[in-house]
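Fold these two proteins, one after the other.
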Amino acid sequence: MARKIKVADLLCGAGGSSAGAKRALEEMGLEMELVCVNHWPTAIDTHQRNFPEARHYIQDIATVRPHILVPEGYLDLLMASPTCTHHSVARGGKPTSDQQRSDPWHIVTWLTELRVKRIIIENVWEFCGWGPVNMKTGRPIPSRKGEYFHAWTETLRRLGFELEWRRLNAADYGDATTRQRFILMGRSDGRKIHWPMPTHRKRDEVNADLFSAAEPWRPAREIIDWSIKGRSILNRKKPLAPKTLARVLAGAFKFGWPKPFIDKLMEEIERSLRYHINWAFEARNAKASKSKRRQRRALAKDLIRRLRHFRIAPAEYAKGGRAAEPMVITLRRNGNGTSISSPIPTVAANGQHVGLAEPVIVNMKGQSTATSSREPLPTQTSHAAHLYAAEPIILSQHNSGSAREVSDPLPTITTGGAANEARPGCARPMLVEPFVLSQASGGSPRAVSDPIPTPTTGGNGAAHALISPYYGSGSGETCNHVDEVLPTITSKGRFGMVVPVTNSNGGATARNIDVDPVPTMTTAKGGEFAFIAAQFGEREGQAPRVHDIDQPTPTIAATGHINLVESGPEYDILFRMLEPHELAAAMGFNTEEATYEFAGTKTEKIKQIGNAVSVAKMKACVGAIMADAVPKLKSRPDAEFLEAAE
């Protein structure tokens, strides 16, 4: 019979820590006896669906009595994820209070009322700077940065714990997101603390090391549902926000989209600027408070400045690309494009800050259809250009989110919410998906995994899908290729997928780049590639960033500001947010064997994912700290010795 390990998961949320711990303990031949506490009924509902054998308590951690919830009086492992939103940079400069940042102190009660052998605490890295807040401004006092953190850790040491903490990247342990988090591990039994060895590394590092046993970061491409198509980014009744379009444009430059797509984006940016300037002036004259009018006046000035700069320096935007590749775009802060071969950026709790843009090859003649860029080219003719390639990317919608490749992990997922596609600042990872389009009559898009149609002598190019983050100011928060990991996933879903497409006059239709063959291809102009883009958050003077969908997604925050940008009919760009099941896969919840079941609305699901702990990383941490709990096999005496004894 397997030995039972008593585990408590405080502020358990949807169960990322619990899932990681269960997988680790089962691999070691141990059985987990779990106690969970969370104040949100929806999160507890999700947890109960996936861990029906656990004891669940819907209660504020500040009011629970540990000795009542754990009558046994001891724990082998205590895991806790104190509220991080009041420490995270993803919240921007919003005011907070000491009371809102006090959750870590409630963990001390569990350590005094129970005998706890091991602890694992997860939070954002900025938690190390936890200090007092100015009562007037509601912002941390810079001169007292880290004061409360050091007092808290000293309290844990006085309770008998040896402590160590590090910053760990989820992509290094097999999750498809570059979510970086503070991890503290402690023991009260005097034994040494062991840390998990990374199992994955950046693709370039793995390729450069012939003797490396590590695998490449999981790409965002693995978690993207290519059957879902985006909506055209152009000529919407209410244009996308100028910053969102600027991120897509940055991703298009980064991944070399052909000039026709650049021209379309320039036209749409100018239209968006004019629309939002008119809105700002109309709103300024409407009935509103003095502060609201001041904000709208400042917005109008900023938009006019951007429009003036856009007119003065058109050459900066008018460069044509050779081939458009897919990318991931983070739609927050200084988001830009990154490769889809990398993980997605960090997924925040709103889950809406990563977008994907994807490339395909399309035959623009006859009744040809789009095909995957990984398949052979179709028959080439001596006609004008009729083939285009587009590659997927992921867009993140917060911070400095940029497009990424789908082969990279998703960015950090935040806790925002998903019901805001109607407004320019929506925030969930978006996928921009690539496919192949033919320029000939009737040519339709095909998956890049299918053969290319018959090509002619017109010349060709390619456009890649990108993941666009809607947030981010740190390095790497740019549009990603779909072969990159996603950035950090937040709770507002700020990732968008951007996929550029072309279409012929013959009614060409788009196809999935990973499934359908490429139509007959000519040597025409370039095609389109998807990428991921961010939705918000560039600081003054910082260029938008996008992500390749061959890279992980950016960090997924609670707002999920990641957008997907992809191509559509003729010279079009398709754009959509990454869906909850895609974000959940990036965070390690969904596996090939089982799909994690989430309760609540779409917005609530994204919030749970963005607030969650990445599963593979927690599995590695639990496996390291619990390694000494594995029962030692008792060696049997030799058969000869037993015979002699008889």
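Now the second one:
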Amino acid sequence: MRQLITVVITLALLAAVPFTVLAAGLEKAQLTVVHGVPDLVVDVYANDAKVLSNFTFGTVTDPLALDPGTYKLAIRPAGADPASAPVLSAEATLAAGQNASVVAHLDADGQPRLSIFVNDTSRVASGKGRLIVRHTAQAPAVDVRAGGAVVFANLANPNEAKADVDAKTYSVDLAPAGQAQAVFGPVDLPVAAGAATIVYAIGSIETGSFRLVTQVITGLGAPPSHVGTGGGSAANATLPLTVAVLAALLVLAGSAALVRVPVRIERRNLR
């Protein structure tokens, strides 16, 4: 009986903790890697562990699921000694649940560098998509135009611009800031509903390696509205998940006591 009381008290304490708090401790960070340096094949390291091999220009990885923390990122030529000096390095601190991108790219003067962006994964309205454009190319500041109209003006390396727009396909081109003549495009750019479409300008205008690559983050659509069943709000009408679980366990425990079924508590080490 004493063991049963202990279990009930423990469950009651857990019920006082919001479920989201318990889940947050288990949530990974997401890191996408973008290769925007032409004529360079590399290996990518995080805290001295190789995470990508033979990484080529123009490649955008799927998100890497990483434990929250600070990572020392290093980029070396493909096949180089892991102890050799990296050609690029940076530190990235990732929080639980955070979505970030690291970009190896050229700066405005054509020198390689690493830039880290935190991706906006907040909700978007119904029928909308989030358009994010990142200038990570050896090129002057540009105006980003859709259908001939300027969407983002005077965007310079290594900055970004973003807006929530109607979900559809846009005809996009780039022109030097304040000028009419496009230096790239037009190209068709689909922006999906409930998603963030991230466009990276990479490479170099001077060498002819300039291009656009994209990353898409889905699942940002507005969640369905809660429907209340009484006079109170939906939040007041809904029990927290842990409370519901506790109630069910108490019912089961009471039933077990009535029929005198012995209960064995197994102790397990949780990692």
